[in-house]
Design goal:
Number of strands: 2
Shape: flat
Order of helices and strands: EEHHHHHHHHHHHHHH
Strand order of the largest sheet: 1-2
């Protein structure tokens, strides 16, 4: 695509202007770069934690393919959700509702990148990894975005599987297998997703209500949501330390995951016991949850680099 394209908006496209100037940054924004960065990081950890050593060039190409697949999912999600993005304060400035990229163009962009990413991963690594990536894209776009998101308060629980799959894809790319250890990494992200997003939903409840999205606070109420956040935190704590007990990590990881787990539970308790109108604890939990996931995967990555560098396992 050229650096800037004049694109007429149709009645089906959100936006205020008849024409919009779309630049490279708008197409990059369609990829949801912040979400993509998390996918790249967790996939990288899965790839490196897997036993053995992967060729640097093929590993880099595989990681690029996974990143492109994540971006494709984001573009297709924005295409489908353009109507609700246009009424939510945190999404109204996205390229489609802001009138800079037409919905049809976003759909074509996402579709092209989806096919490209799966084909590239299949060529660079193996068909298992490519199949898992294709399933991840399908699950996020069709199962979550098109179905679950607008129909059930369990949307983020079930849909969280898509966001939890990247380390499994990375592991499969490195080894051609997806053993129980890879699914432990999946479980950490999967159990982390509901309390992470429900904390956001507690203080963004009005946005979801305007958009007609049945998030847990809007359907079951804040009291029930707070209880469920705490329940998930209690489960996440033990799941977070599981890699140590499966000989995937050492004492450094155990210390980091245990301390972060205690912090997660403590902040979830603060959310549970806060006054109904007080969303301060929910905001703190949301911010901490991002740090939690990064800290666990970073600790695992550091230990893996040290252990493989020392030749403790190959």
């Amino acid at each position: 695509m050229s650096d800037s394209v004049m694109t007429p908006q149709t009645d089906s496209d959100a936006g205020q202007n008849s024409y919009a100037l779309a630049g490279p940054e708008d197409y990059f924004s369609l990829l949801k770069p912040r979400v993509m960065s998390l996918v790249i990081f967790t996939a990288l950890v899965g790839m490196l934690v897997a036993p053995g050593r992967i060729d640097f060039f093929l590993g880099a190409v595989s990681l690029l393919a996974i990143a492109v697949g994540a971006g494709a999912s984001g573009a297709l999600n924005m295409w489908w959700d353009a109507d609700i993005d246009a009424v939510m304060s945190r999404t109204i400035k996205r390229p489609i509702p802001a009138g800079r990229v037409p919905r049809a163009e976003a759909a074509a962009f996402g579709g092209f990148l989806s096919v490209l990413s799966v084909a590239l991963l299949g060529l660079a690594s193996n068909y298992l990894a490519a199949g898992l990536l294709a399933f991840t894209i399908f699950f996020y776009v069709v199962i979550y975005s098109m179905w679950l998101k607008r129909t059930t308060p369990q949307n983020i629980v079930i849909g969280g599987a898509a966001g939890a799959l990247p380390p499994v894809v990375g592991w499969a790319a490195a080894t051609g297998t997806a053993p129980i250890e890879a699914w432990v990494l999946f479980a950490i992200t999967f159990m982390w997703t509901p309390p992470h997003f429900w904390a956001l939903a507690l203080y963004k409840r009005g946005d979801y209500e305007k958009a007609g999205i049945p998030m847990m606070p809007n359907v079951k109420g804040e009291k029930s949501t707070r209880r469920q956040i705490f329940a998930y935190a209690l489960i996440l704590g033990p799941v977070g330390v599981a890699p140590y007990f499966m000989n995937m990590a050492g004492l450094f990881y155990l210390a980091v995951s245990a301390l972060m787990g205690i912090g997660f539970i403590a902040l979830s308790w603060a959310v549970l016991t806060a006054k109904p109108e007080d969303h301060g604890p929910a905001k703190k939990l949301f911010g901490f949850s991002l740090l939690y996931l990064f800290a666990l995967f970073a600790a695992l990555l550091i230990e893996t680099i040290v252990r493989k560098g020392a030749g403790l396992y190959v």
